[in-house]
Structures are given as C-alpha cells and as structure tokens.
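User: Could you write out the 3D structure of this protein bound to fructose -6-phosphate? I've included everything you need below.
Assistant: Certainly. Input first, then the structure.
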Amino acid sequence: MKLICVENYEEMSSKAAQLVEQQIQRNDHSVLGLATGSTPLGLYEKLIQGVNERNISYKHIRTVNLDEYRGLSGDHPNSYRYFMNEKLFQHIDIMFENTYVPNGKAVPVEAECQRYEELIDKIGPPDLQILGMGMNGHIGFNEPGTPETSVTHCVQLEASTRNSNARFFSDRDEVPTHAITMGIQSILKSEQIVVLASGKNKAQAVKRFLEGRISTDFPASFLWEHNHVTLIVDKDAYSLVT
Ligand code: F6R
C-alpha cells in the first residue's frame, strides 16, 4: 500500500485528479470506478478543470459507480445517479451511455445486482477505482460484517451510515434503509484502487486502516489484500496515526 500524506482537502483532490488523468493518458479507453459522498467532490471539480484547461478527454472513458440507494430513481435529487450527473458527467465530454450506476428502482433487486456484477466483468473491471471510507470502515455500502467474497448485493444500511448521510436529505426518515452496492470482491477486482480520506472525522478510521489488521469488522481492511492501493490522506485524517 502506498501512502500519500498531504496538507489539506484541496491537495488531496489535486493528487487524486493527477492519478486519474495519468490513467486516462496511459489509456484513453479506461474504465473508471467512481464513488459519491463528500470526499470525491473536490476531485470531480479538478477533473472538470482538466477537461477545460488541460485538454483531458473522456470521449472513450467508461465509468462504473460503486452504489445506489434502493428505491430512488435516477432523477431523484438524492440518488447517486443524479449526484454523478450533476457533479461530474454533465460537465465533461463523457458519453452518458458509457456511465453506469446501479438502478435503485429495479425489481427484483437480486436480478439488478447480478446484472451489475456481470456488467463490471464485461466492461471492466475498473482500471482505477476511487473510494471514500465510512467512519465505520465501510467501502461502497459494505458495512462491517460483509464477507470478503461478496459481489454486488442489496444491503440494509447501518443506523450510523443513515445518520451520517441524513445531511443530504431534508428529513432523517427520508434516508433509504437499503442500497445496492458492489461487494468487496467486486471492488478488489479493480487494477488500481485510490482511497481518499480527509478531515478529523475520518482520523479514527484511517488509524484503524493503517494498523493493517484484516477483519470483517472493518471492511476497508480487505484492501490490504490488493497489490495496488494508494491511500491519499490529509493532515487531519492522519492526525491520530502515531
Ligand atoms: C459512496 C460510497 C461510500 C462513501 C463513504 C464516505 O459512493 O460508496 O462508501 O465513500 O460513505 O462518505 P463521505 O465521502 O461522504 O464521507
């Protein structure tokens, strides 16, 4: 595992954008694995700048997102599909049909999970996967206890995850109770994984992650089994590491 410690959120976002753009320069038909949440927002702003200022093109790039809330359609403002359209896809020259997010409304959900896992295998796996980290160590929506062998599946969200994500909803009760997420095995299929962590609220998770003890209690720890992981942390997220 490669550790890159930077000053602040801005630098973390720039460093991550640099890795993504290097991947695109190596292969302009790359598959990128993308995440939502607060952490990658700065990265997505930098990628948009890259298109406008550095002639980076996403014309042949395909993307697969980690997860989607169960029950929300892509035009719901809190869906991850909507988030990705608003924060990134609308602002770059990617072809919309080359962007993939699980369908939160699909029935039966098991068929959608299987379809999505097959899609990852067909077009991917990602050359580079971006990950944020939950305070409880979740990656995607793989909560503690998720087996390493898991592929795309439907999960019940932990109360702590729903509380943390309630900031995006007008009412805590509106936060969906379930989500579709790539599994741990799906994530580990990626060629390269870039994990981002910023801020004091991630310090405990970063400390635990860097202990390197693999356990289902802390899903991010399975990343230690992958041979090409880069963790980019800012000072605050690194502050509990001694
Ligand atoms: C989002 C995702 C989640 C987040 C994690 C951290 O697609 O898969 O695992 O990366 O919950 O969220 P933020 O970045 O909001 O702290």
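The helical segments are 9-26, 41-53, 80-87, 109-123, 159-165, 184-188, 203-211.
User: Perfect, thank you.
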